[in-house]
Amino acid sequence: MNARSRVVIVGGGPGGYEAALVAAHLGAEVTIVERDGLGGAAVLTDCVPSKTLIATADYMSGIALAPELGVDLRDEEGDAIAHARADLPRVNQRVLDLALAQSSDIARRLDEVGVRVLPGEAHLIDAQTVRVRSGDDESDLPADVILLATGASPRVMPTAQPDGERILTWQQIYGLAELPEHLIVVGSGVTGAELAQAYLGLGARVTLVSSRDQVLPGEDTDAAAVIEDVFTKRGMTVLSRSRMEATEVVRDTAGVATGVAVTLTDGRVVEGSHALLAVGSVPQTAGLGLAEVGVQTAESGHILIDRVSRTSVRGVYAAGDCTGVLPLASVAAMQGRIAMAHALGDAVSPLSLDVVSANIFTDPEIATVGLSQKDADAKGLSIDVGILPLSRNPRAKMLGITDGFVKFLAEKGSGTVLGGVVVAPRASELVFPVTLAVAHRLNVDQLASAFTVYPSLTGSIAEAARRLHATD
């Protein structure tokens, strides 16, 4: 394509705005159509807000650890100096302010490189035309390349309708005026587990309804076991093998909402003050005109794409949660960048999920990269597995860390690092050397021979790799 190719991007989340930056750098004329605000759900209602909330909960957990570290929070008479509590309106205001600040930063960056942003709803007329409706105004944008990055929204059920006050989705929780007395979290996947622990850390009583044998059913089983143990040790009630049938608001005789009742499929009823629904998400692809244009979708509504983000229609690409590939902001951004590089004739490598690093922001965090033990077992691969408890690390002892581990999966014989798991505070930062090892096919000896600071948590990464050194 020529240097002034017209690119129209529907959706301003990570997949959309990262794609726009690449397209602008490659000389294209770029327009983003965004309905809700730049940054999308990742910045405005999901990743940035939830991790900000979690950071506050982590801070409060640190205060609780003070006596173990020798810090006395009582005066000479033995009375508590202060009782740490979460002022939820202030916490939520900070959460929303940071989300808006990040959205504004994205807007400034896009403006710097000449990307035009149009507020409104988009609809495909054909593979070269996007119709934009904003209020009563309507206009058509000609396009040489179209990228669909419309994201996903919380899944709701007919028997559990969110009202934004007592029954909430993860996009609605930042409007709470006070800390829930008893929060019932339905769903023990990543979102449910993260927010359940966040509210537990903020001081709420929390019950987690999990339909599986273990929380975080899609994750490494050793890691999930650690997190569930931490949950219960800190006072959370975990209802395993329990599935929600319905959730309804409980009202007094005057009709005033006083709480919620979650009915399980086995007939049990769990009562609390609020319910948070974390039962998955659905792609925001309805109303885009996909079928009329010929863009193929799955039965779930997700847009079908190949490894360079192409849809079934030439010139139309898709990225992010609307594709159902992997619901991570980093993957959405990579899909968007790959799409633009491919469409505009730049060098490109197809998306590889084998080297994606991901993190669950519980406390401790779970960071993973590469092959999982579950997949290795399913494929019958010949691997060596090494696991090292973090409690043996000297820096962990100094910091009062008792839960967590480092785990490696290496190819038997060559010692090539195929995957890794880090369960630790700030595991999202610690996993990077493991990601490098997986991405560049380093072996355990190469990873183990690199210097680490003593004492440091990264020392456990080198030690775990060292334990997989082949001796025959």
Automatic annotation (TrEMBL):
Co-factor requirement: FAD
Domain Pyridine nucleotide-disulphide oxidoreductase dimerisation: 358-464
Signal peptide feature range: none
Key words, A-Z: FAD, Flavoprotein
Metal-binding found in the keyword field: no
Keyword check for Nucleus: no
Domain (FAD/NAD(P)-binding): residue spans on this chain: 6-336
Coiled-coil regions listed in the entry: none
Record Pfam families: Pyr_redox_2, Pyr_redox_dim
NCBIfam families: PRK07845.1
Family per record: Belongs to the class-I pyridine nucleotide-disulfide oxidoreductase family.
The name this protein goes by in its record: NAD(P)H-quinone dehydrogenase
Species whose genome carries this gene: Nostocoides vanveenii
Lineage of the organism: Bacteria, Bacillati, Actinomycetota, Actinomycetes, Micrococcales
